[in-house]
Specification:
Radius of gyration: 27 Å
Helix content: 25-40%
Shape: elongated
Structural class: alpha/beta
Number of helices: 16
Strand content: 25-35%
Length: about 575
């Protein structure tokens, strides 16, 4: 990033490398503070007309109002109210009604805190530990300075100190360290080579964000032309998050207007180490938010067979302003790539459970969005004390099966975190995640939280599959039996391939819908290849004694959405105990 400060789309990005303000006066004199004030005054004109009109009657323009207000702020950090008024009578307007002036300051402070606020440090080379420590200290000092400006000015106007202090985060919500890195860049992608890599992330949870969309629509299709060939990305507008999606090295380029989606990757995917990408070529490249002049949403992928890189693309438009378009495209690219290596992608959840009686099982619950995967995991958590000695989440949404050299089928994860509906979490557990979570539209329908769930070493360890269950959310259980196993392998394959579920509102779908193998992120796009792998893996699992069946989550059955997953989990634990 080549600019000192940018403010757009409710996002403020502060470049500590170009300018770091280590005193209150430097902050008040900075270009960034002037930009914030300009935007605030425009907001005041639109939403606080009475306050705006009261002050503007004394000034010829908004620029004069801004300049005089900033001058008053600077004086108030070193002088008392009476001294400020003696400097020049133009400041009298701010002290004629002190209550209104304090209200103005509170509105400014609230406006600043309502922004998504990012700081960055851009190193010319990959940094060492000391740089990271100094970066964290710089952010802490910045936070203290902003707080001290607000408190000093307000207390000077009041004439006394506050008696209650709330230590809110007044500096940056999140901080990124960037480094210039040379990677094995094919000539077609030279326009990407100047974008620095994110090498470190720091943020102050809970991180709240509001996006223009809160559901995802459609599936990603293959494109026959390379959408990013010879495009040129600007350092002013783009960032690069080097992610480990499963075992796939993935370069995610995202536009600054969609900063929260790129930053949120840090809670969902492993941030790759420098040694894993310096001089290397990625398996996957995803360009998110490219302004191609098209207003309609364009999301697709392209197979660059010449360079053996899978390309993902999403253009710059309001419709992609939802984390699902970041996450699900990455999983689609991962799954298509894994199938090329004869591995079977699974849309579902996998847990390694050690029961109190000493028995251990690895369970996969497969199903499309809203079928009950996350809810089943949540039920496992709530039953922890009763049945479980230890539980590991291998994957919460997407994983893949791999046939090992000895013929066993093992499951692997793709993500170290989870992007889950807040309503589906147990309230106590949801509150526990406050100190780690990145929240999206927390007061809206389909409110989400992105939280870390496992370490990368855990998800890539490989766990032998014992139970493979299809999450049926629309059929009521007969005789209260919520788990049934298939005797007929062909019948099992038919049920799993049908991928039926009752849509629950996580996408724009409604009613009973189907998706091939319950996975619109790879198998739908490559049905012939997926079909061969499904038959091969199910046959091998059947031979190896894996129990294949259905689990009736009852999630779409009226009145049973809460108890269904819990009762099914209890039944499963009893079966394992036998």
């Amino acid at each position: 990033m080549l600019q000192e400060f940018t403010l757009s789309e409710g996002k403020a990005i502060i470049n500590f490398t170009l300018k770091y303000c280590d005193t209150r006066q430097k902050i008040l004199n900075s270009y960034g503070f002037h930009r914030v004030m300009e935007t605030f005054i425009r907001k005041l004109k639109k939403e606080q007309v009475i306050i705006y009109d009261y002050y503007m009657k004394e000034f010829e323009s908004e620029e004069e109002f801004k300049r005089t207000l900033i001058e008053a702020f600077k004086l108030l950090t070193v002088c008392n109210s009476d001294e400020v008024q003696t400097v020049h009578n133009k400041y009298a307007i701010f002290f004629n009604d002190k209550d209104l002036f304090i209200e103005l300051i509170e509105l400014l402070y609230s406006f600043w805190r309502s922004l998504e606020r990012y700081t960055i440090v851009h190193n010319s080379t990959v940094g060492q530990g000391l740089q990271s420590v100094r970066f964290m200290q710089a952010n802490e000092l910045f936070n203290e300075l902003v707080l001290s400006i607000y408190r000093r000015i307000e207390e000077t106007i009041m004439g006394y100190q506050h008696r209650v202090y709330r230590q809110l985060n007044a500096g940056a919500n999140a901080a990124l360290t960037l480094s210039n890195v040379s990677w094995n860049c094919p000539v077609e992608y030279n326009g990407l080579s100047q974008i620095p890599f994110i090498t470190g992330v720091m943020f102050q949870p809970p991180f709240m964000s509001y996006t223009k969309r809160n559901t995802r629509d459609g599936i990603f299709q293959e494109h026959q032309q390379n959408p990013i060939k010879n495009i040129q990305l600007s350092e002013d507008d783009w960032f690069l998050f080097p992610a480990k999606v499963g075992n796939m090295l993935t370069f995610v380029y995202f536009h600054k207007d969609f900063m929260v989606h790129g930053f949120s990757l840090s809670n969902l995917f492993e941030l790759a180490k420098e040694s894993e990408y310096i001089g290397k070529k990625p398996d996957i490249i995803y360009v998110f938010g490219y302004p191609d002049g098209q207003e309609e949403k364009r999301t697709f992928y392209y197979k660059d067979t010449q360079n053996n890189i899978l390309i993902g693309y999403a253009n710059h438009c309001d419709d992609i302003d939802y984390f699902g378009y970041m996450k699900k495209m990455l999983l689609t690219l991962h799954n298509v790539k894994q199938m090329e290596f004869n591995r079977l992608p699974i849309h579902g959840a996998m847990v390694n459970i050690l029961l109190k009686n000493g028995k251990e099982s690895n369970i996969i619950i497969m199903g499309d969005s809203g079928a009950g995967k996350s809810e089943s995991l949540e039920a496992f958590r709530t039953l922890n004390e009763k049945y479980i000695r230890h539980m590991r989440v291998i994957f919460d949404d997407m994983g893949y099966l791999k046939k090992e050299e000895d013929g066993t089928i093992k499951g692997y994860g793709t993500e170290i975190g989870a992007f889950v509906r807040i309503d589906d979490l147990d309230p106590a557990y949801a509150f526990q995640q406050l100190e780690r979570g990145i929240y999206s539209n927390p007061d809206k329908v389909n409110a989400r939280i992105t939280i870390p769930a496992a370490t990368y070493d855990i998800i890539m360890r490989g766990y032998k599959v014992d139970y493979f269950l299809y999450a049926n959310n629309y059929t009521d259980a007969e005789d209260n039996k919520q788990i049934e196993f298939f005797d007929d392998l062909e019948e099992a394959i038919k049920v799993f391939e049908a991928g039926a579920r009752k849509a629950k509102g996580t996408t724009t779908e409604k009613g009973l819908v189907t998706s091939y193998f319950a996975n619109p992120f790879g198998p739908v796009q490559e049905p012939e290849l997926a079909g061969r792998l499904i038959r091969e893996y199910f046959t091998d699992m059947h031979k190896n004694g894996v129990k294949i069946g259905e689990i009736y989550t009852l999630l779409a059955i009226d009145g049973k959405a809460k108890e269904g997953p819990r009762e099914a989990a209890e039944e499963l634990f009893k079966l394992i105990n036998e």
